[in-house]
Write a structure and sequence with these properties.
- This is Transposase.
- It comes from Litchfieldella anticariensis (strain DSM 16096 / CECT 5854 / CIP 108499 / LMG 22089 / FP35) (Halomonas anticariensis).
- With 139 residues, this protein is mainly alpha-helical.
- Among the domains are: 13-46, no CATH class; 67-125, no CATH class.
- 50% of the residues lie in helices and 0% in strands.
- The protein contains 7 helices and no strands.
- The protein has helices at 13-21, 28-35, 39-46, 67-80, 84-94, 101-110, 116-125.
- The chain is elongated and about 90 Å long.
- The N and C termini lie far apart (66 Å).
Length: 139
């Protein structure tokens, strides 16, 4: 079984399950001495329902743009086929002057907006003619 623990983990899922199964008559400090961890670690795992680490990602991401602004930028990306730098100029001019390039890129990745190459590939798969003209066939 592949167990993913963070670097500072002092307990494994097996030890956490033992902590949770320990009778209430055993104090937190006794369990802490037994497993060689702190009292706060025992309190953390004793009253949880699971034995796995929780995500350390923020629940509320600190985003520069509102959801409405993000929707406008995504529509501009897909309709106008703007690259990241061009989209950044548009966003700074009309929506959010403080927007950084990396914040815009993270938003596009988070919202799973396709890249320009993926958009072009999707257009050719849909049967739409390529944007360039083929060479004329001379006999």
């Amino acid at each position: 079984m592949d167990i993913k623990l963070h670097k500072q983990a002092t307990t494994t899922p097996k030890i956490r399950a033992e902590i949770q199964a320990a009778p209430a008559s055993i104090s937190d400090s006794e369990l802490a001495r037994q497993y060689g961890v702190s009292d706060s670690t025992i309190r953390r795992w004793r009253y949880r329902d699971d034995v796995h680490d929780r995500s350390h990602t923020r629940h509320k991401l600190l985003a520069t743009l509102t959801t409405e602004q993000e929707a406008v930028l995504i529509a501009a990306r897909e309709f106008l086929r703007l690259g990241l730098d061009d989209l950044l100029v548009v966003a700074r001019e009309f929506l959010a002057p403080q927007l950084s390039r990396s914040a815009l890129h993270r938003m596009l990745k988070r919202r799973e907006v396709p890249t320009l190459a993926e958009l072009a590939r999707r257009d050719t798969e849909d049967g739409e003619a390529p944007k360039h003209k083929p060479f004329r066939d001379y006999v």
